[in-house]
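User: My advisor, Dr. K., asked me to get a structural model of this assembly before our group meeting. I'm new to this, so sorry if the format is off. These are the inputs:
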Amino acid sequence: MDQVIDHLKSLDTKNRRLMFRMFIFYLIIALVYIGLMIFDPGPDLVSENRIIYLSYILIFIVSALFFRYHYRKTYRVDYTAPVLKMLEAARDRHRFMKPGKVWFVLFLVIACDVIVTWVMLDSSWFIGWSLLLKIVVIQLSYFAIMALSLLVGFLIWRRKSRPLVRNLTRIIEELRRDETGSLGS
Amino acid sequence: MDNKEKLYKQIIEENQGRIRSVCKHYAGKTGDSDDLYQEILINIWKGMESFRGDSKRSTWVYRVAVNTALTYLNRKNKYLNFNMHWDDGRVCDLVCEDMEEKIRQEAQMNLISNLMNQLSVVDKIIISLMLEELSSKEIAEIVGITETNVRVKIHRIKEDLRSQVKGGLYEDQE
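Assistant: The format is fine. Below is the predicted structure of the whole assembly, which you can bring to the meeting.
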């Protein structure tokens, strides 16, 4: 028993250290990048570019923190919850589209789209092209990449998680089935 | 020794038999049972901060144990199709209404155990807890459904098992 307790205590300590290190890592990265953007004396870096890069960094930091928050919140299994709740939480974790996340992911995709378009409009690839054509090509390329990523993500999910989601749904439905039933004769 | 450690030792000492019993039901007497036991101990430690004393400590332990066992089965890809390891004496209590029948039925233990392993996951969970002599209220607290629902399910499972056992015996006599 004492060995088990020692093992558990060391696990607790490791987890706490890991959390702290992750926090420091994010903080340092954020400070370094923000410092570079504000104080970089490069003559080619005009203020417009600085704003673009700063937006990039902000999006990365916000998404990293958001996903970390959700990971901590949803991927930590609560074994002390009633079985039904634990199963429902497991099903939510393995769903392809999680209702709370869809809007945020959509926001990130659109925010990145705006920045990518802004950066790419000045690219040497498009010299001599009309503004409308540039925008159309950038949008088509960007959303084609996003659609491909979504498809790959869906195929991976379908192979790995969909059977589990179906099994969990069956168990949950069965648990709820006799909720309003009577003992009969 | 801090308070958490002291409480943890107390919980494990009080509930060792219950945890072992859940392990035996879900993993048999193999090495898997020991692995599952270790996992349950770890999850009890991790979950101790959320124990508020709303339910009995033993009910809380059962909850952690059953949840851990289900997650364990999921990792082994046996969520919907796993065999439980039943205690023959208790299984007999479940379907036999009188002593005479009980004696007669003891010979049919294999049949009953097989029938019980054909039950759904949910029915297996409920029956295994029932065989631990937990009340409907406690089972409801562990599983997260209403007491009425538990009673309805137990009633239905017992009826199904009895009719199947009778059917099996009838076929044997023929």
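One thing worth pointing out at the meeting: Chain A touches chain B through 32 residues (CB under 8 Å).

User: Perfect, thanks a lot.
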